[in-house]
């Protein structure tokens, strides 16, 4: 019983810390870029209140439709609170997976090994999928949501399996199979947006967002892995 209790307590604690940390990074990194992109989306690709700002000319309607009746949290405290809650729940979910795997590994891992687990999670969940589906700003064209979700889940599963084979099995067949798993989703290709559609936000803003999102994700996963191993070891030795 204490085995599962340690995992749950660790995941909750790590999730709260990780959720607050990533929310703080988003507040100064990705969120201002998203809000700026929304002004381009609402203006149909033209930057409001400035004739000198870059514009996206000839852009088609984005792949998603803007539904005025759809509910969304209000800007300010409400939006921040919902984002924080979502980040904490997401962090707890990922931390449950990490702490469960670390416990099953049975090596009494310290924070250094936890960091490696976090880097592996970043590679599987963020780095590999973003090769085909990079982080998107509002107003970016995209393929059907279901197709993107299926490809993302397949890529995460295949990459995680490949990393596990490389880390825990050193036989030649395992290395070959790992490489096949990691490469296969990209050979199949990510679902593409409809032809002729272009992002409404300018390209420099998109690139800045991708960099900010990638850095935020890396810090998030590094924290999850490090803290999961650290607190799990503390609970197990208590």
Automatic annotation (TrEMBL):
<feature type="transmembrane region" description="Helical">
    <location>
        <begin position="151"/>
        <end position="168"/>
    </location>
</feature>
<feature type="transmembrane region" description="Helical">
    <location>
        <begin position="7"/>
        <end position="28"/>
    </location>
</feature>
<feature type="transmembrane region" description="Helical">
    <location>
        <begin position="81"/>
        <end position="102"/>
    </location>
</feature>
<keyword id="KW-0472">Membrane</keyword>
<protein>
    <submittedName>
        <fullName>Cobalt transporter</fullName>
    </submittedName>
</protein>
<feature type="transmembrane region" description="Helical">
    <location>
        <begin position="173"/>
        <end position="189"/>
    </location>
</feature>
<feature type="transmembrane region" description="Helical">
    <location>
        <begin position="114"/>
        <end position="131"/>
    </location>
</feature>
<keyword id="KW-0812">Transmembrane</keyword>
<keyword id="KW-1133">Transmembrane helix</keyword>
<dbReference type="InterPro" id="IPR012666">
    <property type="entry name" value="CbtA_put"/>
</dbReference>
<feature type="transmembrane region" description="Helical">
    <location>
        <begin position="209"/>
        <end position="232"/>
    </location>
</feature>
<dbReference type="Pfam" id="PF09490">
    <property type="entry name" value="CbtA"/>
</dbReference>
């Amino acid at each position: 019983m204490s085995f599962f209790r340690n995992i749950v307590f660790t995941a909750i604690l790590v999730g709260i810390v990780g959720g607050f940390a990533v929310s703080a990074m988003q507040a100064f990194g990705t969120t201002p870029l998203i809000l700026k992109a929304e002004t381009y989306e609402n203006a149909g690709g033209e930057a409001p209140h400035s004739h000198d700002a870059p514009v996206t000319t000839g852009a088609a309607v984005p792949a998603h439709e803007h539904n005025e009746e759809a509910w969304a949290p209000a800007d300010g405290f409400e939006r921040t609170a919902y984002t924080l809650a979502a980040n904490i729940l997401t962090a707890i979910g990922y931390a449950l997976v990490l702490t469960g795997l670390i416990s099953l590994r049975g090596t009494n891992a310290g924070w250094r090994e936890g960091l490696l687990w976090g880097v592996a999670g970043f590679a599987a969940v963020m780095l590999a999928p973003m090769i085909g589906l990079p982080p998107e700003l509002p107003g970016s064209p995209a393929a059907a949501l279901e197709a993107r979700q299926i490809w993302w889940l397949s890529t995460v599963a295949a990459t995680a399996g490949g990393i596990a084979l490389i880390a825990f099995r050193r036989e030649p067949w395992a290395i070959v199979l790992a490489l096949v798993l990691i490469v296969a989703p990209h050979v199949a290709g990510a679902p593409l947006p409809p032809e002729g559609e272009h992002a409404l936000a300018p390209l420099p803003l998109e690139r800045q967002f991708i960099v900010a999102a990638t850095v935020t994700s890396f810090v998030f996963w590094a924290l999850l892995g490090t803290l999961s191993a650290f607190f799990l070891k503390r609970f197990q030795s208590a």
